[in-house]
């Protein structure tokens, strides 16, 4: 009982250290999904799966309408201050999508993040659309559409539209419209399917994002690729009602279908995301295993078209960084694509504060220092309570050791006498650890916010730290952090027995080893927090605390008079 506060702190710190060591050094990499010919065939046909409603010939077919399409593959370029997109008339989809504000590799100033992976001529490109009848897919995703519109260069709030049109020899026509904006990563997508044949056709329409972002974004360099696979989630995300679910390729067996409308479905990497948000006409979604570790996602729409009838479907696509303001601009729920962990309700405002400070100081390293100082100031009262409690327990340590020697064979009696000693001196053992427990959620929230914040990606600090999202290349900040942790430990009053004290001395070494590979921004936060804690403890140690005299415990034999005696600090 007498050491429960210290033991709780030790258990929490050791648990955190164990999790970090396991995650960094022992977590096995995700296995490469094995694709047999059968599974690949099933995956290619997943989106094209018939709806179960066979076409019904209700009227005799008339003369077949004239097909509409292109004769060769052509490209259209859409340029904005945020990105440059290249559209192809093959499927009326994205051939490439380059984020002009984000480098792929820090060392290469000309490299830019590419959001689209073209896996080959037969692959389904992002924002392709398909319609599936009883006879299988009608080939819209691979068809050469007729293009209506030309290159766009959008500036100063401008919007622009590109349309694609294709009609099959059987008379089923698809018109696709993509609308772009100069100041947003949103692409508004319209898909209109018209039955110009003489028969009723039942089937399923789909808007597809393929083949996924995994192993594409952030792969320009082994360090970025390793961090993405170790610390950040990659795979599909779906917001179904209030629940956000992760869908990894290794957990998929073919296709996972959502029959009810979803808020959105996305393909996600650590820092970037492509999201499909249904607006009109879509009544379901699916995720299917693609090649490698990639997951393709799509919105679905069940349709039954009589001759001459049409169906209109609309959706929005967000293709860009996991940056809160950009996500919120399209839909506030998109912020949930950022993995803030279980303390997300704390992490979000902390990240907002970080961005607020950055607007004034212009450096995310300085913003982290200011945020660390603000958090420390807020928790000063809690830290003072914990310090005073630990100091009281430290003053009682000689008497507690004497009780241990006296009742070393009777643990129950030992606990009773120790609690009696605490009561006589009005010491609450829990008051030393409860203030620390209050601070733990804030620490973990800030840890997750800094670990996955795209704002820190390639953001420089000063001198040798040129990327706050990467480890310190010279390992200077982790070593300073370990030294400050050791000094802080030596200044903290302790009521632990010598064995526990020796164990605690190893913690700075363990944490230094852990933080060698952590993002420099996170190490700076921890170091600043340690320095501020040392300064606060120095002030508390120098201040007169007005402690009451220590009351010595009475011998169990009844001998002695239990005199009160003042002891020096």
What does this structure look like?
- By secondary structure, the protein is α+β, with helices and mostly antiparallel strands.
- It folds into 2 domains: 34-338, Beta-galactosidase, Chain A, domain 5 (Distorted Sandwich), CATH 2.70.98.90; 346-542, no CATH class.
- The chain is 35% helix and 23% strand.
- The protein contains 14 helices and 20 strands.
- It has helices at residues 4-26, 37-46, 222-231, 324-330, 344-361, 364-378, 380-395, 397-406, 411-424, 434-452, 476-491, 498-505, 507-515, 520-542; strands at 75-79, 83-88, 93-99, 113-114, 128-133, 136-137, 146-148, 152-153, 159-167, 172-181, 186-195, 201-209, 235-240, 243-247, 255-258, 264-268, 272-280, 284-289, 295-305, 310-321.
- The chain has a 9-stranded antiparallel β-sheet with strand order 7-9-10-11-20-17-16-13-14, with helices on one face.
- A hairpin with a 4-residue loop joins β9 (159-167) and β10.
- α5 packs across α10, α7 (380-395) packs across α10 and α8 runs antiparallel to α9 (411-424).
- The longest helix has 23 residues, at 4-26.
- The protein is elongated, with a radius of gyration of 31 Å.
- 38% of the residues are buried.
- The model is unreliable at 1-6, 25-60, 218-229 and 556-569 (pLDDT under 50).
